[in-house]
Amino acid sequence: MWPRRPEEEVPITAPAPPQSLNKYKVLPSIERRRSEQSSLDNDMSVLTLSDPPDAEGEPPGIGPGPPPPDPPGGSLLLAVRAPCGRRFQRQFAAADTLLAVKVSAEARYGDEYGGGVSIETADVPRRSFTDMDMTLAQCGVVDRSVLCITRDHDGVRPLK
């Protein structure tokens, strides 16, 4: 190699800022969104997950004792679909009959379904009950089930 002379040395300069490969400038609204996103990320790193305290100042779920026991026979939260297609949720006891479910739907929507109804479960396999004196426990209805009340038209049951 050829020896360098001092007058040929290239002065060392600070590195240039990185250039975008995009030849167009970023729109101001996008630039603003990027800065807001980075500040949001910084704020999120500081947050912690916790439940808000209840009225007594204690976090929910932490109380003076265990939760109250379920009533005898168990309590079932059921969704009931009436023949009109509307739905509602209600607590029933496992000892309640299908007639109680039908009566609650009639009372809620101000309709009378008469004797030609059946109540079906929405789970698989689908089960249909026409004996309104059976209890929910006898029917095998579990908590958070959906029951559908259907009318029998002219005493003829629809094909399944």
TrEMBL record:
Compositional bias of kind Polar residues: 37-48
Signal peptide: none
Xref: PROSITE patterns: UBX (PS50033)
SUPFAM superfamilies the UniProt entry points to: Ubiquitin-like
InterPro entries given in the database record: Ubiquitin-like_domsf, UBX_dom
Annotated stretches, region: Disordered: 1-76
A Pfam family matched in the record: UBX
Biased composition (Pro residues): 61-72
Top-level lineage group: Eukaryota
Domain UBX: 71-149
Protein name: Putative UBX domain-containing protein 10
